[in-house]
Write a structure and sequence with these properties.
Helix content is 28%, strand content 22%. It has a four-stranded mixed beta sheet. A hairpin with a 6-residue loop joins strand 12 and strand 13. The protein is elongated, with a radius of gyration of 34 Å. Helix 3 runs antiparallel to helix 4. It has three domains: 147 residues, DnaJ domain (Helix Hairpins, Orthogonal Bundle), CATH 1.10.287; 133 residues, Heat shock protein DnaJ, cysteine-rich domain (Chaperone, DNAj Protein, Chain A, Ribbon), CATH 2.10.230; 104 residues, HSP40/DNAj peptide-binding domain (Sandwich), CATH 2.60.260. It has 400 residues and is of the alpha+beta class. Pfam families: DnaJ, DnaJ_C, DnaJ_CXXCXGXG.
């Protein structure tokens, strides 16, 4: 089976940072900590954290499940000990009865590359490749059937574009999605009478066993499509799948503070799962339009405010825009052009309920034209400035 094939080269305990003897509680604790630290919502644009989050989730899906963990431990133990050798008619340790490897090779000279090579060379599951081998090994007590059944619907990805202020403050937007949705006739069960029975051909495992060459193989049950269940009276509208293709409208809440390129996950808003299984997730990639007034620096808002020379020289209180209502910012006398003033708590809202700061940079604007009165007054000021001994270029570039 493809899942067990992937297990061979994975170190799930290492991904979670625990030992193979760790308790279920320790594994769960490690998973929660790592998932929280590496969640995409907490690390926007961080590919390494996103990859780590996926590895941790995959690891916990296996070793966090008692049945899967047992199978994983047995598989790793067999691979590490070279346990793919000669097996008796009742199977070796960890093998179900009836699984036989009819070969004269010992465990020391049995080459695992024979199995991997055949699969890599194009051997399909129906031709005795790696997947069928492990389907047989792990098909005990219906475990393979559980793994074969679809457990949830498909994830859905979409993109939206928001204005700068919508992204900073958060917003609610309507979305139309086309995909698998629960059938309204059978309410997602796939049955007209909502009666689902266990498949008698595979006893609910989803796989049937048969001998094929040297190995006893397990193949997907053709009677139930590897679901382990049979619907005797399938719904006519969904043909027994429990889902139909349709367009639906949902309302999506975008949290405050999202940045350009960030993905927002909405659990359970993806496509419906077959026959009443849970829906997948919806991942919304957010694009943010630039704003003509504001820019961002983390959770801080940045704005450049035009001021006059006299406001900087004499000091003033000027109105400055924010995400909601304007605030008055006091400019101390003698403030140089280009200085940045900080207004606490008027930046981008955070999940904690606090907000970043507003960073106000003052920039002198020079009038293009002066009337006679203003020009005369400015000349008088310039002379008074010179008489006071002020020279803006004193000591600059070696000048006197």
């Amino acid at each position: 089976m493809a899942m067990q094939q992937d297990w061979v080269n994975k170190d799930y305990y290492g991904d979670l940072g625990v030992s193979s003897t760790a308790s279920a509680a320790d594994i769960k604790k490690a998973y929660r900590r790592l998932a929280r630290e590496n969640h995409p919502d907490s690390n926007p644009g961080n590919k390494a954290a996103e990859d780590k989050f996926k590895r941790v989730a995959e690891a916990y899906d296996v070793v966090g499940d008692a049945a899967k963990r047992k199978e994983y431990d047995e598989l790793k133990s067999m691979v590490n000990s070279g346990g793919f050798g000669r097996f008796g008619g009742t199977g070796g340790p960890g093998f179900p009865g009836g699984f036989r490897a009819q070969t004269s090779q010992t465990s020391a000279d049995f080459d695992l590359s024979d199995i991997f090579g055949r699969a890599a060379a194009g051997g399909s599951a129906g031709e005795g490749g790696f997947s069928d081998l492990f389907s047989g090994i792990f098909n005990r007590g219906g475990a393979a059937g559980r793994n074969a059944r679809p457990t949830r619907g498909a994830d859905v990805e979409t993109e939206i574009t928001l204005d700068f202020r919508e992204a900073a403050q958060g917003t609610t937007i309507p979305l139309e999605l086309t995909g698998d949705a629960p059938c309204t006739t059978c309410h997602g069960s796939g049955s007209r009478s909502s009666t689902v029975t266990t498949c008698t051909a595979c006893s609910g495992s989803g796989y049937v066993r048969e001998n094929s060459g040297a190995f006893g193989m397990a193949r997907p049950c053709p009677e139930c499509g590897a679901t382990g269940q049979r619907i005797e009276d399938p719904c006519g509208d969904c043909s027994g799948t429990g889902t139909v293709r349709r367009t639906r409208s949902i309302t999506v809440r975008i949290p405050a503070g999202v940045i350009d390129g960030q993905k927002v996950r909405l659990a359970g808003q993806g496509e419906a799962g077959p026959n009443g299984t849970p829906a997948g997730d919806l991942f919304v990639t957010v694009h943010v339009r630039p704003d003509p007034v504001f820019s961002r620096k983390g959770d801080d808002l940045e704005v450049t405010v035009p001021v006059s020379f006299s406001e900087l020289a004499l000091g003033a209180a000027v109105a400055v825009p924010t995400l909601d209502t304007p605030v008055k910012v006091k400019i101390p006398a003698g403030t140089p052009s280009g200085r940045t003033l900080r207004v606490p708590g008027r930046g981008v809202p955070r999940k904690s309920g606090t907000a970043g700061d507003l960073l106000v940079t003052v920039e002198v604007q020079v009038p293009a034209h002066l009337d006679a009165g203003a020009a005369s007054a400015l000349r008088a000021y310039a002379q008074a400035e010179k008489d006071s001994g002020f020279n803006p270029r004193a000591g600059w570039a070696g000048l006197k």
